[in-house]
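Hi support team,

I submitted a single chain yesterday and got back a structure, but I'm not sure I'm reading the token output correctly. Could someone confirm the output below corresponds to the sequence I sent? I've pasted both exactly as they appear in my results page.

Thanks,
R.
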Amino acid sequence: MKLPATTVRFALAALTVLASLGAHADQLADMKARGTLVCGTLTTTEPLGFQDPQTRQIVGFDVDMCAAIAKHMGLKLEHKGLSIEQRIPELSTGRVDLVSAALGYTKERAQQVAFTAAHYQVPIRVMVKKSAGIDSFAKLADKRVSAVKSATTEIFARRGLPKTEIVTYQDGPSAYLALMQDKVDGFSTSHTAGLRYLAESKGEAVFINDSLAWEPTALGVKKDEPALLAAVNKTLEDMEKAGEIDTLWTKWYGPNTRFAFAREKKLTPISTFAQ
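Hi R., thanks for writing in. Yes, this is the structure output for that exact sequence:
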């Protein structure tokens, strides 16, 4: 029996709607169904995410944040190492559920991924060799400054040092090495990441006593996943109230570490910076 044309059109429309709903699955529901949280971190930035020389495992503040969030959500952590360039693409394609990888908030990035509340804020600094006598940004005019390609440290260096040539490298160690080998005159880095390199320089490098910007750092989730974003934000709020974030920060940045950097600014809604 041949069905009326209107019935056929209705059935086809219903199938289209169902297909579109299936294509936009709820990522939080998927995570709960499989029982894991896939969380991406950097792997070459101490103490955020780096390889422990003894265990060969990737450890650090960001790794511990991933583990704590997974535990709060009743999920098993599946850690994934990422480069700076991979952070946003891996989120956008859904290959990771969450990124905890020195992800500084910018309005441009907010067009691509969703940001949680900022769990810490750090100044963006420029490191120079002490022997160079460069003590201001003005003295970097017509000189060269290294930065990690696609990182906010590159963005802020280009904005704050318009008369300086910005030379990009694939990762922090390479950008730092360029400074120490006199290939560049300065190195744009976040204060937290830069503390590692100051320690490695054994007094040979210093920060210029000024900042290019004060950067809010947050966790990233895929765009248009409101349930997941809300769940991670709720977890961060619970961790903040319980003092867990401070405890992790003290473990990696506290006075008994070689970094000794205080977490002055606490959990702050990302809307504060989106004005």
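A quick pointer for reading it: Residues 5-23 form the longest helix (19 residues). Let us know if anything else looks off.

Best,
Support desk
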